[in-house]
Amino acid sequence: MASDRPPPNELGARLFAAARQEVPAADVRQRTLAAMIGTVQARGQRRRGRWQVAAPLLLAAAGVALCLARRPPAPAQSEIAREPVAAHPSTTPSAAVSSEREAPEPLPSHRRPPAPSPTLRSSGPRAAPSLSEELTALDRARGALERGQPTAALAELDAYQRAGGRRLVEEAEVLRIEALARAGEDSAARALARRFLATHPGSPLVDRVRSFLGSGAPQPTTRP
Amino acid sequence: MASERRHYPGVRHSSRSLEVPEAAYATATPALERRAAAMVADHFDFIWRLLRRTGLGPTDADDAAQQVFMTAAQKIARIAPGSERTFLYGTALHVAANARRRNRRREAEAPVPETYPVAGEGPEARAELGRAWALLDELLLQLPAELGRVLVLAEVEQIEVKEIAAMEGIPVGTAASRLRRARERFQMLLAELGSRHPFRGTDGE
Predict the structure, then answer these.
(1) Rounded-to-integer distance, Cα B182 and Cα A164, Å
(2) I want to staple B29 with a disulfide (CB 3.0 to 4.6 A). Which of A44, A181, B17, B127 is the partner?
(3) What pLDDT score was predicted for residue A84?
(4) pLDDT at B88 exceeding the cut of 60
(5) Are A12 and B66 a contacting pair at CB < 8 A?
(6) How far A7 CA lies from chain B's nearest CA (Å)?
(7) What is the pLDDT of residue A26?
(8) Do B33 and A4 touch (CB under 8 A)?
């Protein structure tokens, strides 16, 4: 046996050559590529949706959201059909959760939101969130609002802020104004709206915020 | 000692950034898809083998490689053209470190699989290759991590020192001296093996 032993140089070369011969199964490569393409496409569509087609829609939705913050939802509105803000009348009275923003929202179990995705809040020390993570975070906040859970929305917006979200701060602030108003915290909502106008005078969302402020004291949202 | 080797501090990802404007991202999607396809075609085997040599079993290497490339897909617009391999390499080292931490116990208990995907090889040759890979991993474990990495890049992947330096984020001179030391120590380890080796020895079998 010992006589078969290659000298170290040759043995090393053969070990390295053996390592070069190892390849992954072809289906792993294909699965990976398919998953990558899916990710790239999904991101592209999200961008297209957010920034090309739906940029005006986003503004309209913010306006609708602000209007809805001040009155009971009217599900038949066409804007609501496009951006289903509060399309489902909540079974949770907002007033019940208006005072304790940080507390877990007392939801009936069948209306509990899906577990938050880990993208923005799970991993401790990490780099600033990517744009897609920021979009996801605001989607979650918007989703909470749509489900009639302003406190959950505020928690999502707090998480967004803590995670260092910075690209969509204006959208986040408008969502926060809406969430505060829906949670019955009108004075806080109005104060934030005024601060928004002062700090983002050039924002495309200014008109919506201004009309929110100018349209009289919003009523706390009371759901049927 | 294994755990010492298994961490990869100081590995730099590509710092160059090629931001795609948000509005342009959607129209850039087909080009990004082509880039993704090219990354898989050019680098998947390399990354998978690299993950294997960091001590992951084939199945864990599958998962880890997918994770590496999914990370690349998420950041694809910000990976500078030409730095794909460096990006994937740095990502793979992090992913590998995490995967090993997660799987350490399971890996230790797992037998060396006999069914490696080697095209066109019979069972004897496969078994021989399996033993060779296991021995190589065993020897690499005895090298300091930074030496093991440059040795694998140079000897298995046959990447030039200049490129290794770029991938590791170190000066070329440092990479060259690390490679020299790695080869010396690897030869010493081989010499200490005695009669243990995975090959049958004769060429005419």
Answers:
(1) 42
(2) A44
(3) 36
(4) yes
(5) no
(6) 8
(7) 82
(8) no
The 10s digit of each residue's pLDDT in A38-65 is 888 887 777 665 555 545 555 555 555 5
CA–CA gap between residue A67 and residue A51 (Å, rounded): 23
CB atoms within 10 A of CB B37: 14
* Residue entry with tokens 């995490």: B98
Percentage of chain B exceeding pLDDT 90: 47
* Per-residue pLDDT at A92 exceeds 70: no
C-alpha distance from A171 to closest chain B C-alpha (Å):
16
Query: Which of B19, B54, B199 should we substitute to test contact with A (largest number of A Cβ atoms within 10 Å)?
Result: B199
To the nearest whole Å, the CA of A26 is away from the closest chain B CA by: 9
Provide CB contacts within 8 A for B140, sequence distance 6+: B5, B53, B148, B151, B152
**Residue B72, pLDDT score:** 94
Q: What is the mean pLDDT of residues A77-102?
A: 37
Chain B, 83 to 142: residues with Cβ < 8 Å from chain A are 116-119, 121, 128-129, 132-133, 135-136, 139
Are B69 and B142 in a shared domain?
no
Nearest to B69 among A6, A23, A32 (CB): A32
Q: Which of B84, B53, B68, B58 is nearest to B156 (CA)?
A: B53
Secondary structure element (H or E) that encloses residue B22, with its range: helix B22-53
Task: Say which of A2, A20, A40 has its CB closest to residue B32.
Answer: A40
Q: Does residue A79 have a pLDDT over 50?
A: no
Q: Which domain-ending residue is among B86, B110, B134?
A: B110
- Packed helices A26-47 and A131-146: angle between N→C axes, nearest 10 degrees: 60
B127, B92: one domain: no
* A8 inside domain: no
Looking up tokens 């969430």 gives A179
Domain-embedded: residue A168: yes
Quote the mean pLDDT of chain B. Answer: 79
Mean pLDDT value across residues B86-104: 85
Domains of chain A: total: 1
Q: In this complex, do B73 and A35 lie within 8 Å of one another by their Cβ atoms?
A: yes
CA–CA separation, A187 and A191 (whole Å): 6
Q: State whether B2 and B103 are in the same domain.
A: yes
CB contact under 8 A, B33 and A37: yes
A37: closest CA among B178, B11, B2, B29?
A: B29
Instruction: Return the residue matching tokens 């046996």.
Output: A1
Structure tokens that stand for B131 in this block? 């033993």
Structural domain includes residue A210: yes
Interface confidence, given as ipTM, is 0.78
